[in-house]
Amino acid sequence: MNTLGDFDAGITIYGKFASYKPSTGGTFTLAGSPALSVYKDNSTTQSTSGVSITADFDSVTGLNHFTIDLSSDGSFYSAGSFFSVVITTGTIDGVSVTGAVVATFTIRRNSALKPATAGRTVVVDAAGLVDSTTVKIGPTGAATAQTARDVSASVLLSSGTGAGQLDITSGVANVNVTKVAGTSQTGRDLGASVLLSPGTGTGQVSLSSGRVKVQSNTVTNAGISGFPFLMLDAAGVPRTGLTVTGFRSIDGAAFSSCANAATEMTNGWYKIDLAGSDLNGAVIAFRMTATGAQDRCFTVVMNP
Fold this sequence. Notes:
It contains no helices and 26 strands.
């Protein structure tokens, strides 16, 4: 499966994947009127809008090329979402490969830096620094135009104790704080030791035994509904119609059956409601098994 990357909305993206003959492992033509669909986030609704596929691309056996025009459906191909490209029609040497995931991509979701206007770029020098010309500083829509006096190549501070000066020694400013946000401070407010006020009210921190409590979906002894997982056959193709049995090992203990049975979703995906008794530990190992499929094993680290 290919991870294509993170893209701007409204562009056309391209990708390739190989198809292999199950009996030999060699490349083989994807036949049976092959077609691709795109799934968005965790929705079961698929779309073929803007999607096309060419099998044996450039007359190369087993090389498949696809195109997805993101401008074809702006509401489906929306920013901030995750997408999976799945074979919904196709066979290899007479074997159906429907449900195989060939690629994933995101639209303006995973990239660390995104311009407010799509397509804009920045200049990065040899040292990896962004070359920026600052013309305004301030909040969006209310920034103040700057001059060379405001922002220059080098701003020197005047060291001393007079008006407009800072008492600086070895690059460290000696500061006496008397007010914060306009409020006068005392030794209790700012001192060698600042005590936190535990609780759940405004300005408080929820503490337990010196630990800060955090919100998490994986909490010890708290169940999780609809936990999804993918089952594959020996050839790595998603397998449908299985009767899946779940087992779990709590903190390295022997495996035992999960409290609830797994149910099928679609295209080789299944889900299971994990009970609190399945998650009553620090580290839980899971094994999902079914006749005709590889075991699916995974580990979940719980929060106390």
